[in-house]
Structures are given as structure tokens and as C-alpha cells.
Amino acid sequence: MDGHAEATSIRYDSCLMLLKPMKMHWQFSGAYARISRMLRFSSAEQQVSVYRCHESLEDTRPQIDFASEITSRNDWLLLAAILDGQKPASSWPTDVELSSKSRSATAWDYFRVGGTRGLASERFLDVVGRHTLCGLSVCYAELNDCRYFFFRREWAVDCFDREHAVFDTFPHDASRIMCISQFAFHKTLVPSDACFCIPESKELLLTEPVARRIRDADLRGVALEKIF
Q1: Are 227 and 201 in contact (CB under 8 A)?
Q2: CA 102: distance to chain centroid?
Q3: Phi and psi for 224 in degrees, rounded to 5?
Q4: What is the C-alpha separation between 186 and 159, in angstroms, rounded?
Q5: Which of 80, 97, 139, 153 sits CB 3.0–4.6 Å from 115 for a disulfide?
Q6: Residue ranges covered by each domain of the chain
């Protein structure tokens, strides 16, 4: 009996010796996983970048002819109200057309149109991906008989950091922003791969993955300004 008890004790002690390193390994693995998650979150948070989409400024770039008979037929007040979400998307006319005197205009992928977030080509949408439209939809138009798009605000991403941004407000309404000279954002609220807009601005904003695809595709007429 004593020999059996002694042998059992030895086997039990041996198991404990084997389990201790395993327990330490489990504890280390758990701690490592927690640290890795923290580092990944911290890294992702630090890598948040936001760009503003502009029309490029080449001297040779074509321009939309707003004085032409075709372009001037549009009801721009109605279009602006629809694009801002003040009127339903179903109100969008089926015959929105713009023209340019340049035959090469449709080789360009982005045009500035006052009061909107810009006019973009089908190539632009294909490159950025329609899945990146966060709170935005598109309204069809034609430029020199080619298909283009305006961006309509369905909802705005509320990620603007008023505390750290620099901006001017309207004299008659201090709650409304008139001009932003320095953007700031709450990093955790910025979508990761998106074209979006914010309540404080009409501009088309992009995150780093979208900006990278635009640069890689070398879209014509697009200028990206890093604002954050």
C-alpha cells in the first residue's frame, strides 16, 4: 500500500510539473493576445487619414460650359436641394445634362460643380467602389452624352471634432459653420474605407484606402488634399 501511495504521489507531482509550464504558456498567450489587440487598435487609430476631393488645376483641363444652352436648362436650385437630402431622390430629373466645349472632356473623371460634391465619371465610381459610399448615393447626369454622377447625401457621418478643429461660424447663427480652416475628427467614428460627408461641410471626403485606389488608378482631374 505504501509503495502504491508513493508511486501515485510521484505520478501526481510529475503531472503538476508538466502542468505548470503549460499554465505559464496559457497565461503568456492570453496576455500576448490582449497586448496584440491593444496594439492593433492603437495602430489603426493612429493611421486614420481623411482627404478632401478637389478638381485638379491643370491649365489644359476642360471646363463645363455653364452658359451653354444644354447646361443652363438644369434647375440648379432643385438639384442642390435633392443632393443635400432636402428633397427626395425620386425628384431627380431624368434629363440632367451638362456640356463642355472640349472634345476630351469625357476623358476626365472629376469636375467641380458649385453647390455640389462634384461630378464624377463611371471610372471614378468603379475605382473607389460603390460599397465605399457611406451615407451617399448617386444621381445620374450626362456630360457630352457620357454618363456621370452627382453625390447625394442620404445621411452625414457625425465624426467632426469641433473642440480641436478651427472654423468660423455665421454671425447670425453661431451653431452653423461657415468655413473650416483646420479639420479635426474623432478617429474612432471615421469610417475605415469610405467616401462620406459630414454635417458641417458639403465637401466629398475620402479615407486613405479610397485615396490610395484613386492614386493607383491615376484618375484624371482628381486632386486629393490631406486634411487630417
Answers
A1: no
A2: 31
A3: -110, 125
A4: 5
A5: 80
A6: 1-46, 50-226
